[in-house]
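Quick question, first post here. What does this chain look like in 3D?
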Amino acid sequence: MAKNTICVWYDRDAEAAARFYAATFPDSAVSAVHRAPADYPSGKKGEVLTVEFTVAGVACLGLNGGPMFKHSEAFSFQIATDDQEETDRYWNAIVGNGGQESACGWCKDRWGVSWQITPRVLTDALAAGGDEARRAFEAMMGMTKIDVAAIVAARRG
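> Answer (accepted):
Ran it through. Tokens below.
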């Protein structure tokens, strides 16, 4: 296990979520599934307790902690994309698998985890500053999934 790992709390579906992420994003995998050695407040001995996985190279631990805590936009995975095809592929995988669209490139997966599917052209435009950044930002504010061509056009003015 990595020295620093992101722990993501799930009600009961940590393994299903980890396997979905591993199948969806490159450099992702499920490396271990650990079962509870005894009964615990939200589960029974032998049920999946934790799942070690990576998402796009980031070490994570999924914890089946029960329904006490819910996900919020205060935590999200941000996936940088190179073009519209890659943006569409990840967006459609998340939203099309029981997730939901939000705004400005954000969506939630079916487990309630937030994702930012962010084309590099958008982050480059914002980093450029000035009018170029303002135009790209204003264009982004009206989008759900990011439209790469519209961001490129906004950058140019």
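The chain has five helices and eight strands.
The chain has a mean pLDDT of 97.
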